[in-house]
Amino acid sequence: MNYLVPLPVVMPLLGAALTLLLASRPRAQRWVSLTVLAATVAVAATLLVRSSIDGPLVVEVGGWVAPLGIVLVADQLAALMLVVSASVTLCVLVYSIGQGMADGHEETPLSVYHPTYLVLTAGVCNAFLSGDLFNLYVGFEILLVASYVLLTLGSTETRIRAGTTYVVVSLLSSLIFLVAIGLVYSATGTLNLAQLVDRLDALPDDLRLVLQGMLLLAFGIKAAVFPLSAWLPDSYPTAPAPVTAVFAGLLTKVGVYAIIRTETLLFPGGRTADLLLVVAALTMLVGILGAVAQSDIKRLLSFTLISHIGYMLFGVGLSSSLGLAAAIFYVVHHITIQTTLFLAAGLVERRGGSTALDRLGGLARLSPLLAVLFFVPALNLAGIPPFSGFLGKLGLVQAGVDDGGVLAWVLVAGGLLTSLLTLYAIARVWNLAFWRRPHPEMPEPQDSVHTVRTAGVEQPYQGPDRDAHPGAMLPRLMIAPTVALVVLGLALTVVAGPLFDLSSDAADDLLRRTPYVEAVYPGGTP
After folding, report:
1. Are the C-beta atoms of residues 90 and 246 closer than 8 Å to each other?
2. H-helix or E-strand containing 73?
3. Shortest CA distance to 475 belongs to which of 91, 113, 97, 117?
4. Within a 10 A sphere around the Cβ of 76, how many other Cβ atoms?
5. Beta bridge partner(s), residue 457
6. Among 119, 94, 125, residue whose Cα is nearest residue 30
7. Phi, psi of 228 (to 5 degrees)
8. Locate the NADH:quinone oxidoreductase/Mrp antiporter transmembrane domain: which residues (predicted)?
9. What is the structure's pLDDT at 289?
10. Residues 29-73: pLDDT tens digits?
11. Residue 387 contacts residue 486 (beta carbons within 8 Å)
12. How do residues 434-490 score in pLDDT, each as one tens digit?
């Protein structure tokens, strides 16, 4: 099954090239993108099954033997991230197609959107599969280029300004990462992750600490951890709803994945564990306090995104098998739930004409289905039993109690407080946007009002932009993927036991390190 490992990167890139050639045929573009992402989901699921049975799957790209060539490694952690990310990108693509068709393609020009979206997918998959630091850097740069294009779709002043901030911050983190790569190569003579395991262990402790700190700084900016997260709430909410959703679900998690991979494989038991715990606590609390202060749903969700990154760092900082397993479980949960909530926010904006809480009201009566699509993942995000959010937080709390240290207990208390404040923030959104009476400025449903006169007869308009205005009834192609992600979030609760077992196996392999190293170098590292 090793030949399947490069496909999650190769297929989206080939699909991007094909959709670019089909720029004048939107229908063909849509089918190519859907087919490619559906195939990526199938390949990722196969890799997850095979890596669980056979151990890490390795491919030396171009036949060049490691460490000279590029190595792609699909272990349980990478394969699990591939399955979740590919499933989410497929659902968001369907959502964006529904939005583009309803809007007459004005908001998301498909000739640009589909190739860029597939390139973004390839970058995410490449980052998860990368077996060396430089290829990981390449994956991040692919993400940067594609995400800038998606973030500035429509070329409005607000989006260009937000995109500029995003690019400057991303380039800064990439520059720090590149400098760290140069220092690592200078000190060890290699960038291959499996080979770095032995060579970094042989370095003086102070030098290892410098290298570890540089990598953490670069990945911390990309993961939007406090105090490196100020750029995110000003960047994500300005983009179209599907772009915001896929950014929130995936891009910060690639940074978290890089932290997990390097901290466990390259710097196990490092001196930064306490620092990670402190940063995790500050990220949780500052992020959720920012969310409580917001009066716009998108910005509120952006701050909850920052806040809940802290839970993942909590598990990594504990450096225990249970803590790491809970962190992996929580990453899977958060990718799904945060994406769902941003898609629901897009539906709120479409139905209510805004995401500003002071201009909304009565959505539960006007659109009961929309109310359910927001309410269920919101409870999951807040960690209400028995949802997967509660189970992930319970695992982290148990790991913190087992650790018994002062910082661990502070994180336990901080995590519980953050969960309560998340519930408060979500309840406030529900009360203002869904429960109270409709705001006087909210548009009425326009489905039966938008008419044209044909041959002297007034008839409902059925053109491509029929729903391209506030108050329009929600298109089915936007509702269906949101429902699918809500169901997926509920499914995480149903299969929480097997999923946590899988996360535990992945955590054990990460902490042992030998399965990864032996898969890349069966005869031992050179």
Report:
1. no
2. strand 71-74
3. 97
4. 24
5. 454
6. 94
7. -105, 25
8. 130-417
9. 95
10. 899 999 999 999 999 999 999 999 988 999 988 777 777 788 999
11. no
12. 888 766 655 555 543 333 333 444 344 333 333 334 445 678 888 999 999 999 999
> Comparing C-alpha atoms, which of 280, 300, 412, 425 is closest to residue 355?
300
CB 290 within 8 A of CB 302: no
What type of residue sits at position 64?
Answer: W
For residues 257 and 263, give the distance between their C-alpha atoms in angstroms, rounded to a whole number. 10
| Cβ burial 35-71 (10 Å sphere, 16+ → b, else e) | ebbebbbebbebbbebbbeeebbbbbbeeeebbeebb
- How far is Cα of residue 214 from the mean position of the Cα atoms in its chain? 23
Question: To which residue do tokens 């209510």 refer?
Answer: 352
In terms of Cα–Cα distance, which of 346, 209, 338 is closest to 274? 209
pLDDT, averaged per 10 consecutive residues of the chain (526 residues), comes to 90 94 87 95 95 91 79 94 95 87 52 90 95 93 89 74 82 93 93 91 89 93 89 81 87 92 86 89 94 92 94 92 94 95 91 84 86 94 92 94 91 94 93 79 49 39 38 76 94 93 93 90 76
**Crossing angle, helix 321-352 and helix 476-494, to 10 degrees?**
160
Rounded to an integer, what distance in angstroms lies between the CA atom of residue 141 and that of residue 127? 10
Q: What is the DSSP letter of 65?
A: P
| DSSP assignment of 429-493 | HIIIIIISPPPTTSPPP-TTT-EEEETTEEEE--STTTT-STTPPPPHHHHHHHHHHHHHHHHHH
Tell me if residue 356 falls in helix, strand or coil: strand
Distance in angstroms (rounded) separating the CA atoms of residues 24 and 32? 13
Stated pTM of the model: 0.90
User: Which of 395, 422, 446, 161 lies closest to 307, judged by CA?
Assistant: 422
Per DSSP, the three-state class of 130 is strand
